[in-house]
Amino acid sequence: MTFPAFLFYTFAALAVLSAVAMLMNVRNTVAAAMSLVITMVALAGIYVLLEAHLVAAIQIMVYAGAIVVLFLFVVMLLNLRSDDFAPPRQRLVKLVGALLGVFVMSELLRAFGGLPEFRPPPEGFGGYRQVGIALYTDYVLLVEVSSLLLTAAIVGALILAKRKID
Amino acid sequence: MVPLEHVIGLSAILFTLGVIGVAIRRNLIVMLMSIELMLNAVNLAFVGFNRVWPEGPAGAAGAERALDGQIFVLMVITVAAAEVAVGLGILISMFRNRDSVNVDDVSLLKW
Amino acid sequence: MPVEVLIKTVFILIVVVAALAPVITWIERKQSAVMQDRIGANRADVGGITLLGLLHPFADVVKLLSKEDVVPEGANRIMHLVAPVIAAVPAVVAYAVIPFGGVYDFGGEPLSLVVANPDWGLLYIFAIGAIATYGTVIAGWSSNNNWSLLGGMRASAQMISYEVTMGLSVVGIFMVFGTLQLQDMAQAQDTTFRVFGFLEYLGLHLPPWLGRFPFVLPAWGIFLQPLSFILFLTTIMAENKRPPFDMPEGESEIIAGYHLEYSGMRFGLFFMSEFIEVVVIAGLVATLFLGGWTIPWISQEAFIGAVAPIFGVGFATGLCLVVHFASFMVKVIVMIWLQMALRWTLPRFRYDQVMDLCWKIILPLSIANIFVTGAVMLLVRGQP
């Protein structure tokens, strides 16, 4: 097994284990959030292996570094304590549904026969220069619309969390 | 490197874990985190597929669209950030009204 | 190749973490004493010899190691244990991309005095800064204490706000140097530029004496982007919770905020990580704005070209390496001195003042800086 393959399987195992830890961690919401951070950092490692360097850096900076901190901030603000699983019968029904989803997905994956191999990418693939040029020449409208979306989200979050509307 | 099936398989496993998380947990914060996990799984699939076609789709405009997958991942991260902001705002106002973040406690409209 | 990386890593760990961080403890005590017109700590001695207080860091280590490790009742033991580690590791790991010297050709492979020089070097620093937030947040929450929680919450809001402005304030430097690699940025500062050169592009003719020393400045970031220097220094000091932005730490002025419930070597880890971050800030500012390892007005080729005819090329390159490393350390020490001086001069910000400063003052200023830089680059180079 080559070194990149070994790294990939390590990161994949880490991501899956911490995702399971996030789900199973009933008593401690903060521990669940930290497990999510571990998942995201492992995924960022996989992005680097897949030659998506800018996306990996942005994943750590934005996702693991700001979004989950926001979750932690709200948990600490509201001082949320423990939690329970759903009542047994409801949980069983939903779990069966989720497992059906897994089964369907595995059937879909089995249908994957002719996926192409990895070829060596061109120079600078996934680097900040090429992605930046693509973002601001071909996809500049996307950037502008996403700025509108973020403004709408900021205004929405402000209004939702205000104490009273005056 | 690993075959692409393994990358997509990992993405499918993480997505399913996210779905299970939304299904079996009652705490709204953990449900939001499971949604983030689903979005991450989808991002991984995008990046994986982008890697196997580094020169872009076939056809005349191929080279311009070679990095489509990664640009879409950036947009997914943006949308996830916006959704987390609004979702946490809803959660805070829900907590103020009902003093709990358990979704079973906001079932007034349920028949 | 990995052996070279290992040697450089060990060198950085020994020189910076093990040697420089304790010296900074001493600098802080002595500098604050001198600035406040008192003597400072000078009692620690070995056999009656006090070295002006240089032995105090060792006394600190012995004291911290021999203290009892207290975990408060009702606290989460695992989180309480892990939080100082999460705070300390990003501080040390950030040294991987800071260049201590240039690229020297000793006949074989060129030797570059930086541990790693990836394509996206500066983004690595920002990502590591994002991870460092968690140490503070988890420490504040896991201590089962109201004041720690308050300190942790304020720290999280402050750190994520200043991450944004930290990134935006150096976009001007990226635009001017055209690269994110710190080693290449330092090398791009190895030349000089004419201060009044921009007049030529406005159509005026420049007299020759205006194009020579002393109207020729080294092409350092601080001369090319002065506003960016001020904004970056402010935001990175706020990001690392250095005073005057140490609201999360000393907020009640008596109770220590997020590292309230830590004693012994766990507190020592927080303490050390703050001083290691001081050196990271100094190294980053020196690389981006003060020319890194370069000597003002004397470029590497000029130095080697001057020394080589006398002593030979190999010796000249080695001497150049030593001189560049010394130049970098001098700049780092100047920046450390500056941070200490800022600490002991300015009063602490209030929390709403900190947030106001970030979002209402620094953010618009850094965006304005980007616009002005773009306009000037369009004028000077003909293309942005």
The SSE order of chain A reads: HHHHHH
> β content of chain A, as a range?
under 5%
Q: Mean pLDDT of chain A, as a whole number? A: 83
Whole-number total of structural domains of chain C: 2
Query: How many separate domains of chain A?
Result: 3
The number of helical segments of chain A is 6
Name of the CATH homologous superfamily of the largest domain in chain A: NADH-ubiquinone/plastoquinone oxidoreductase chain 6, subunit NuoJ
Number of strands of chain C: 4
Low-confidence stretches of chain A: none
Task: Outline the low-pLDDT stretches of chain C.
Answer: none
State the end-to-end distance of chain A: 64 Å
Number of strands of chain A: 0
Give the secondary structure arrangement, pairings included.
The complex is a heterotrimer of chains A (166), B (111) and C (384).
Chain A: H1 3-24, H2 29-49, H3 53-78, H4 88-110, H5 128-137, H6 140-161
Chain B: H1 4-24, H2 28-52, H3 68-98
Chain C: H1 2-35, H2 56-65, H3 77-93, E1 103-104, E2 111-112, H4 121-142, H5 146-169, H6 171-177, H7 182-188, E3 192-194, H8 198-201, E4 216-218, H9 221-224, H10 226-239, H11 264-288, H12 300-311, H13 313-345, H14 351-381
Antiparallel strand pairs in C: 1-2, 3-4
Describe the structure.
Chain A is mostly helical and 166 residues long. Chain A folds into 3 domains: 1-81, Four Helix Bundle (Hemerythrin (Met), subunit A) (Up-down Bundle), CATH 1.20.120; 86-112; 124-166. Chain A is built from 6 helices and no strands. The mean pLDDT of chain A is 83. Chain B has 111 residues and is mostly helical. Chain B has one domain (4-52, 65-99): Helix Hairpins, CATH 1.10.287. Chain B has helices at 4-24, 28-52, 68-98. Chain C has 2 domains: 1-66, no CATH class; 72-381, no CATH class. Chain C has helices at residues 2-35, 56-65, 77-93, 121-142, 146-169, 171-177, 182-188, 198-201, 221-224, 226-239, 264-288, 300-311, 313-345, 351-381; strands spanning 103-104, 111-112, 192-194, 216-218. In chain C, a hairpin with a 6-residue loop joins strand 1 and strand 2 (111-112). The longest helix of chain C is centred in the first third of the chain and has 34 residues, at 2-35. The two termini of chain C are 37 Å apart. Classes of the chains: A mainly alpha (166), B mainly alpha (111), C mainly alpha (384). Chains in contact: A-B, A-C.
